[in-house]
Amino acid sequence: MMLKRFFSKGSLLALAFMFILVAALVGCSSDSGGSSSDGGSSNSGGSSSEGSSSGGDGEWAGQTVKVQLIGDFSMEDSTDPITGVKTPGLHVLKEEFESQHPGATVEFIIMPWEGYTEKTQAMLTSKEADVYQMPGIADFAAQGLLEPLQPYIDADDEFSLDIFIDNQVDGWKALPPESSELDIFGLPFLGDARFITYDKQLFDEWGVEYLSEYPTMEEITEKAQKMTGTNPVTGEQNYGIWFRGDWSSAFTLINAAEGLGGKWGTGFAWDEIEFQFNSPEMLQGLNWLLDMQELAPEGIVSNQGSEKWLTKDNNIAIMLNQGPGDLVEQTYAQGLEDRIAIAQEFKDDSGKGGLFAGSPITIAKDSENKDLAWEWLKFATSDFAQKYVYETGAMPAVKSAAEWDNVKEVSELMNPVFEAMSTPYTPRYPWGSAQPRFILTSEIEAALTGERSAEEALQKAQKESTEWLENR
Amino acid sequence: MAKNSVEINASSNPSTDTSIGFETMRQKKRKSQLTWYVFLLPSFLGILLFMVYPIVESFRLSFFQSNGTIENFIGLANFKLVLTSATFWNSVWNTFFIGIFQILITIPLGFIFASLINSTPRGQNFFKVVYFLPNVTSIVAAAMIFQFVLHPEMGIVNFALEAVGLPSPGWFSDPSTSKWGVIFLAVWHWIGFVIIICLANLQAISPEMYEAAKIDGASGIQQWFFITIPNMAGTFAFLLITGWIGALQRFNEVYVLGGPNGSPARSIQTMGAFIYERGFTGFEFGVASAATYIMFIIILIFTFINLKVSKMKL
Question: Which of A265, A308, B39, B176 makes an SS bond possible with A276, Cβ 3.0 to 4.6 Å?
């Protein structure tokens, strides 16, 4: 009776509908596990999984390496909306790697920069990929989620760390769990750097000498002061300087302190870290930023006022704490190659200074194909893949890049970028994506907006950051 | 006797028929209910998986020091940390400040606009569309546009203020005005919804009441005060409660405008942004979970007060 009731027309219809729904959902989802899907499908927004099969026999037959990438990567070729430059899709890397490793398959999992840290954590927990692009390497290495790479490097005669731009390997070193010795868990994949950019045309119009290669704070102050006001040639309002007073202001301040011989603090593991946010150098640096604010347009604490930068109507002479990002491409796309120039950030006595940034690639501890994953790491740092990285608008991390034809064409901008990549402060700031960064940023904002004096703001930042460390 | 027997049998037949009929109805009802439960199953599973489980898991996490993989039980330490955190109470203040002024401005203003639209003989639909458009705009896109509208140097609002000789504030670049920037955005975005809801109620008020008032010599303003407004009480209560809950959960627009730490100087960091900052930028899931439950209790208390104040029956 129950069975009869259960299998009545209505119930059956409902069940059938559910099965169709489930089948449709499964059918519409992307294939991330198998080796039979086509690599050319589209990437829709947030994250996507792309797979394909090279199939066949070979040394690596049946093995798949899943590679997570962050940012503007895409399987298909695309065209940059601003520059009009065509960018090849990831299929280029896939085809080359699979041809070099017969039988192997590469699957890409692409995610946006937005919330990449928590997504990476979730992926590591669920063993979603073998290789990860991982700017937050220190947090994950400390959790024991990453494979140490030194044994692979030692065992591989074909591979050498000398291929990387100086300081890049050291910068990505991290602490394993319950150890106080930094180890290699990632190889540099995407390069990045911080530097000072300036508009030579405004310097010419004001009759001011260009910035030196390694300018001091006094030099910046003097020249920015001269170029704030009504431009003697165009009659437009010009500003001597601009910097972000919000999101990245902590790094701008730390770099100013480094230029004065100070530093953010000491230690790398959380239980060893001691902040020096209220040091005399930090205070002097923040007071300098307050002075510089007077020479900047309104809105630096809300990332406003620099809307004309990298356009022909630019009204700002010097930009602090800039990254390569789209700088090179956009400069050339806007026809500003004769105007935009780069100077280095402030350096300490050892010649180092500024934020170390970029992305390394790592192997997950739980990866079941570690040998193939290591092969991918070598491939991703080879000239072939690094040239691809450069063509997509990112910065390569290898020394040989300086000799590439398409880099030589823009060497005036690229050479200072490479120089900046080889002289950042290392080991990098371990608190760079943790709560102390937000505490310090908020207090710099408070000082820049007159909520607190520079001294009070730094004392508060020091106190709150230290308390945060104690409560961790 | 035989007759009686027949009568008994005859009389018993209908009763048997009724019982069979009754059972059939019950069976049909059960069958029908079963079918609907089958239809409800996917949604129910979804609720279990995406609502009940995270709520329970978040409660568990609030007693742990957790970065997502490594966990240590620390009892009520997270709650203590949040409740003694000046940053958290600053975010509570920001949330309430923005929420209260958004509601205080939008509901009366929306009601006035709705009354004006309702009294317009022509073009009602046009005005409804025009005022409702902001509400269908993505708040993220709207927030980005408002950054330009309220730009301290290039913004159209400051241009207009300067044109009439008024001082031009820094808006999002000044902690003393940034909250007002968010309030303007929130009012602009929500007012269309308020107008539509008020209009629906206005059109449901019996015209006979207005006719009777006119015969008694009531002026337009008197009709508005003594007929329209009292008849809108239920709608105002609904808007107050839904608006208040939405205001306490505010996150998207402040995240776009000021990032997770509510720049400048945490002046627009709401409770939602505080939770995001600690949970998803600092990996302090225990702290974020504790803050979420404290926020839940705050919303619960104020919704209860709102229900009492507005005398709304659920």
Answer: A265
